Amino acid sequence: MSASKNSEYAKLRQFPRFEVSHCESVGGVMPEASSSFQLSTLGLGGCAFLSTSGETGFVPPKEVLCSIYSSDESGVNDAQFVVGNLIYLRPISLGTLAGFQYGVKFHHEERAKLRGILEHLEALADQGVVLRV
């Protein structure tokens, strides 16, 4: 996805998001998915996962469970199950590979669970470890 497209989406978001696809201390999975999904962005309002294969049955609208975690040198220090709705599925280019991006909007009542993880991401962003997108 182009940088200009990313900035367009960022303007539309209610909450800031962080690029976490290369972050070793924050990650997540969709336990229901049979193929590997990689958490790529995370914010209070939702997240996005990347996959190099399409997942049968994972098309909007669908309620999904996300497992999000943060860790430090001592191990996992926060892990949360958060429920949301799959709101988009779009094809993307991952370098030389083709793949899909799955966008999830968290249910309003689930968002508070992520406060600790997002505080961790804010600190990492201030240190330049992750980007705000």
Concise synopsis of the structure shown:
With 133 residues, this protein is of the alpha+beta class. The protein is built from two helices and eight strands.
What topology does this entry show?
Elements lengths: L2 H10 L4 E3 L6 E4 L8 E6 L2 E6 L10 E11 L2 E20 L2 E10 L8 H12 L4 E2 L1
Antiparallel strand pairs: 1-3, 1-8, 2-5, 3-4, 4-7, 5-6, 6-7
Question: How would you describe the overall organization of this protein?
Answer:
The chain is built from 2 helices and 8 strands, in the order αβββββββαβ. The protein is of the alpha+beta class. A hairpin with a 2-residue loop joins β3 and β4.
Entry keywords:
133 residues, alpha+beta, 47% strand
Distance between the termini: 12 Å
Give the helix level as a range of percent.
10-25%
Radius of gyration: 14 Å
* H-E string: HEEEEEEEHE
Overall mean confidence score, pLDDT: 87
Secondary-structure-derived class: alpha+beta
Enumerate how many helices there are, as a single number. 2
Globally, the shape reads globular
Number of strands: 8
Low-confidence stretches: none
Strand order of the largest sheet: 2-5-6-7-4-3-1-8
Largest sheet: 8 strands, antiparallel
